[in-house]
C-alpha cells in the first residue's frame, strides 16, 4: 500500500509521493485551511486593522451568508463586532506605561498581544503587592 501523508490542516490523507504532496500543498483547499488555522492565533489589533480597511460584503449583509466564507475579500463583521474588537484592541493609558516597564525588565505585559507566561505574577505587579526582592526573576 505504501506510505500515506496526513495533512493536519485539511484533515485528510493521501499516498505520500513528491507529486501528490506538491499538488496538495499548492492546492487552494490546503491554502484556505492553513490560513483558517493560523487566523485563530492572530492578534486582535491585526484583525481590527485588516477588517477596518475592507469594504462590507453586500451578500453577507443581505443574506447573512457568503459563498466565499473566510476567504472573501470583503468584511463580514457587523458594527457591533467591530466595536467589540475595538474594545479588545484599545488599552488604558496606565497599561501602556506598564508595558514599557515590563519590556525593560523582560516580562510580558497585559497590553501585549502575546499571552503572559505568569498571569498571577502579572496581577500582583499591577496591584503593587510584589516588590523587586520578592520577584522570581531577580
TrEMBL record:
SMART domains in the record: ZnF_C3H1
UniProt keywords, alphabetically: Metal-binding, mRNA processing, mRNA splicing, Nucleus, Spliceosome, Zinc, Zinc-finger
Zinc fingers, C3H1-type class: 51-79
Chain ranges of the C3H1-type domain: 51-79
Chief site of localization: nucleus
MF terms in GO: zinc ion binding
Gene Ontology terms describing biological process: mRNA processing; RNA splicing
Pfam families on file: zf-CCCH, zf-U1
Source organism, top-level taxon: Eukaryota
Places the protein is found: Nucleus
One GO CC annotation: U12-type spliceosomal complex
Name the UniProt record assigns to this protein: Zinc finger matrin-type protein 5
Taxonomic lineage from the root: Eukaryota, Metazoa, Chordata, Craniata, Vertebrata
Amino acid at each position: 500500500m505504501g506510505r500515506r501523508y496526513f495533512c493536519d490542516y485539511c484533515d485528510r490523507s493521501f499516498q505520500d509521493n513528491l507529486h501528490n504532496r506538491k499538488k496538495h500543498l499548492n492546492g487552494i483547499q490546503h491554502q484556505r485551511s492553513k490560513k483558517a488555522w493560523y487566523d485563530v492565533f492572530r492578534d486582535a489589533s491585526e484583525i481590527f486593522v485588516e477588517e477596518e480597511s475592507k469594504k462590507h460584503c453586500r451578500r453577507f449583509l443581505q443574506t447573512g451568508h457568503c459563498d466565499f466564507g473566510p476567504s472573501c475579500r470583503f468584511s463580514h463583521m457587523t458594527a457591533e463586532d467591530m466595536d467589540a474588537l475595538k474594545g479588545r484592541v484599545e488599552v488604558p493609558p496606565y497599561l501602556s506605561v506598564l508595558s514599557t516597564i515590563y519590556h525593560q525588565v523582560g516580562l510580558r505585559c497585559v497590553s501585549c498581544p502575546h499571552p503572559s507566561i505568569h498571569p498571577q505574577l502579572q496581577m500582583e505587579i499591577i496591584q503593587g503587592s510584589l516588590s523587586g526582592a520578592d520577584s522570581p526573576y531577580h
